[in-house]
Specification:
GO molecular function (chain A): ferrochelatase activity; heme binding; metal ion binding; peroxidase activity
Strand content of chain A: 15-25%
Order of helices and strands of chain B: HHHHHHHHHHHHHEEHH
Shape of chain B: globular
Structural class of chain B: mainly alpha
Distance between the termini of chain B: 18 Å
Protein name (chain A): Deferrochelatase
Helix content of chain A: 10-25%
Number of helices of chain B: 15
Structural class of chain A: alpha+beta
Strand order of the largest sheet of chain B: 1-2
InterPro entries (chain A): Dimeric_a/b-barrel, Dyp_perox_C, Dyp_perox_N, Dyp_peroxidase, EfeB/EfeN, TAT_signal
Radius of gyration of chain A: 23 Å
Largest sheet of chain A: 9 strands, antiparallel
Number of strands of chain A: 9
Number of strands of chain B: 2
Function (chain A): Involved in the recovery of exogenous heme iron. Extracts iron from heme while preserving the protoporphyrin ring intact.
Largest interface: A-B, 35 and 61 residues
Strand content of chain B: under 5%
Oligomer: heterodimer
Helix content of chain B: 55-70%
Organism (chain A): Brevibacillus fulvus
Order of helices and strands of chain A: HHEHEHEHEHEHHHEEEHEH
Shape of chain A: globular
Distance between the termini of chain A: 50 Å
Chain lengths: ~425, ~300
């Protein structure tokens, strides 16, 4: 027996068929002739609706301007042989290319007695700048020391579990993963649809380990396209490198030839941290304390003592009493360090209902950053922050993962081709 | 599945598919009218030739006959087992009744989609508390509650008699149930959906925690359908056949450590990680299983 009683069912079906149950009362019957799998006509499509190319030297979703919404998924492989994993990546690549063009997973033949090929919730929608970014974690190569797919000798040295940081309160359910898929789009349903369908075709080969939906202010809400604010109300990403500057991206983001394994050239390493914010505590913090915590003015985003968001940091400047204007433990100072470690941040805010133990909002930042070498870039920054950052009073890291985002695929090829070659 | 089979008694089950297309006007129609007059402007499943009809497909017809005889065999055993269970209840032998409870139910769980196609029988035999109004609540779970919650069989005699009667009626009616290719391909998935929605959550056997018996029986029932269809399926799609076979194997391998004697350990002994694994293995199997219709050209 299932939850819906027969009696209840008769009432529901009597009132319009099961379709009504699922809100399908307004759905059209999907016959082959009216299921469109081609991308909608470009006419009338706004910039946010356009397609981001899947194929290329690099994967999309890294230097792609951050879309409005994120759906992030970490998968565990249950496949036991290498070919199964390769086939999964081939299938995923082909589907990802279709989805990014705004197409469905596959052409539906409308057979009545089999489930539709695509789950359907994006039929007729624009591509909405969907980007799907795939990475493999340390456990992809070695699981509890076991060379599970015979690829252990290909594990990059810099792709290892992150060291523990002081103050971490990591929960297993928000950590790790053999493979990650970062879905970003200017529509939350488009992003969710992508992960849902990738998980579906992966059944039997990979299972979801954890997922997190993310958001930021939408681009239409901010005509000026300013730096987005995090849930603490401060601009987040001011100091990001310029993603349109190829040279900078080669310095900061893209793995270069002769550093680590060849298969990773043009790829990038991703660090993900699920950072819960102590929202209620922050909300009763004075403005002055908030600004000293970040080392920036809240309204303008300017460094303390400066006028404009992009004014250079002056970390030595002191006030008339001889005190540093940007305090010793301000977030911006510690994140900057000596300016040698740079990362490309691409984070999204999240909310996940409430923490049942405290009644507090479970909200924060799904911090995502890209770099050539996490051990030389993210790790030293985070070591400084974890030790001293004034912000630690208001945040706690509850999740952590690191992935090697594969180099891009060429048409006819697939993501991971260099790894499996 | 409960959903589709119960309904199919009353409406042509093709209407179910058409239900997705039904606009408000069909909501006003009685089910029979709706079935008789598929809206002309909308191509519906009802307008197509009966999908899954065995007429003109001797191999499929043979498959259906094989499956029917399996169902009858299970039902025969179900009647016998229920009789012993009912006797134990009526004799006030709580220990014996508890011992017989879960193994008896397995015969039913293997053929549940068939039983669900037979009207009120499923709720009469298998309703859980709250599924039906309390004064109508009877069947296995009513007795289960008494045996485990109250540790007594007292006052359960009438329910035991009624149960045996209902089960005998099921046995009589299975001879008449119409089985076609559609029921087979959807029935196999329905059995696994049963597992996904009520067994892995531990909701089915809320007093006895014998959910793993039902779990295993549902999967065995699905496997039986697959095995029956396999010769036909393998001709059309060998890789799909292999995948399904291999996923059944993995699932049974996952279940194996929980076997205890002839039965299974209490569901409460499973850790969250283990129930999650079982649930994901069901998903991994049900996905290719749901594709059997493609390969059979249904």
């Amino acid at each position: 027996m299932r939850k819906i009683s027969r009696r209840e069912l008769l009432r529901l079906t009597g009132a319009g068929g099961l379709g009504m149950l699922l809100g399908g009362g307004t759905l059209k019957w999907l016959s082959p002739s009216n299921v469109s799998t081609s991308a909608p006509a470009a006419s009338g499509m706004s910039a946010t609706g356009q397609a981001v190319p899947f194929y290329g030297k690099h994967q999309s979703g890294i230097v792609t301007p951050a879309q409005d919404f994120l759906y992030f998924a970490a998968f565990d492989l249950i496949a036991t042989d290498r070919d199964e994993v390769r086939i999964l990546l081939q299938k995923w690549s082909a589907i990802a290319a279709r989805l990014q063009r705004g197409e469905t997973v596959g052409d539906d033949e409308g057979k009545p007695l089999v489930p539709p090929v695509d789950t359907g919730e994006t039929i007729g929608l624009h591509p909405m700048s969907l980007s799907l970014t795939f990475g493999v974690g340390p456990s992809f190569f070695r699981q509890k020391g076991v060379n599970r797919f015979g690829l252990a000798d290909r594990q990059p040295e810099v792709l290892s579990e992150l060291p523990p940081f002081p103050g971490d309160n990591l929960k297993e359910e928000w950590c790790g993963g053999d493979i990650c898929v970062q879905a970003c789009a200017n529509d939350p349903q488009v992003a969710f649809h992508a992960i849902r369908n990738l998980a579906r075709v992966a059944r039997g080969a990979a299972v979801l380990r954890w997922t997190q939906a993310g958001f930021q202010r939408t681009s239409t809400a901010d005509a000026a396209k300013g730096t987005p604010r995090n849930l603490l109300g401060f601009k987040d990403g001011t100091a990001n490198p310029d993603t349109t500057d190829n040279e900078q991206m080669n310095q900061v983001v893209w793995v270069q030839p002769d550093e680590g394994p060849d298969w990773m050239v043009n790829g990038s390493y991703m660090v993900v941290r699920r950072i819960q914010m102590r929202i209620e505590v922050w909300d009763r913090t004075t403005l002055q304390e908030e600004e000293n915590t970040f080392g920036r003015h809240r309204e303008s985003g300017a460094p303390l003592g400066k006028q404009n968001e992009f004014d250079p940091l002056d970390l030595e400047r002191k006030n008339e009493r001889g005190e540093l204007i940007i305090p010793e433990n301000a977030h911006v100072r510690l994140a900057f360090g000596d300016g040698t470690e740079k990362i490309l941040r691409r984070s999204y805010s999240y909310t996940n209902g409430i923490d049942l133990d405290t009644g507090h909002l479970d909200a924060g930042l799904l911090f995502i950053c890209f770099q050539r070498d996490p051990l030389k870039q993210f790790v030293p920054i985070q070591q400084r922050l974890a030790k001293q950052d004034a912000l630690n009073e208001y945040i706690v890291h509850v999740g952590s993962a690191v992935f090697a985002c594969l180099p891009g695929a060429q048409e006819g090829g697939y993501l991971g081709e260099t790894l499996f070659a | 599945m409960k959903v589709s089979y119960v309904t199919s008694l009353f409406l042509s089950s093709t209407l179910l598919f058409a239900g997705c297309s039904s606009s408000n006007e069909s909501a006003e129609q009685t089910p029979n009218q709706a079935a008789a007059q598929p809206a002309a402007s909308q191509p519906t499943a009802a307008a197509q030739p009966e999908a899954g009809d065995v007429q003109g497909d001797p191999q499929l017809a043979q498959t259906v006959d094989q499956y029917r005889s399996y169902v009858v065999t299970q039902c025969d055993a179900f009647v016998k087992a229920t009789e012993q269970f009912a006797n134990a209840v009526k004799a006030g032998n709580v220990e014996q009744a508890k011992k017989l409870y879960a193994p008896t139910r397995m015969y039913y769980e293997r053929i549940e989609p068939i039983a669900e196609a037979l009207g009120d029988l499923d709720p009469n035999i298998d309703a859980r508390e709250g599924d039906v109004p309390d004064q109508e609540w009877r069947g296995f779970h009513r007795i289960e509650q008494a045996l485990w919650e109250k540790q007594t069989a007292e006052g359960q005699g009438a329910y035991a008699d009624q149960l045996l009667q209902d089960v005998k009626q099921l046995r009589a009616l299975v001879e008449t149930v119409e089985i076609d290719g559609k029921l087979l391909v959807t029935g196999a998935v329905e059995l696994l959906n049963e597992v996904s929605s009520s067994k892995v959550t531990g909701e089915e056997e809320r007093y006895s925690h014998t959910d793993l018996y039902d779990f295993a029986a549902n999967v065995e029932g699905a496997q039986q359908i697959f095995v029956t269809l396999k010769p036909v399926l393998a001709q059309k799609d060998q890789p799909l056949t292999d995948t399904i076979e291999q996923r059944f194997d993995s699932l049974f391998a996952l279940l194996a450590p929980f076997k205890q004697g002839e039965g299974y350990v209490s569901y409460t002994e499973l850790k969250q990680e283990q129930t999650k694994q079982l649930s994901q293995a069901i998903d991994a199997l049900a996905e290719p299983l749901s594709q059997m219709g493609t390969a059979l050209n249904l």
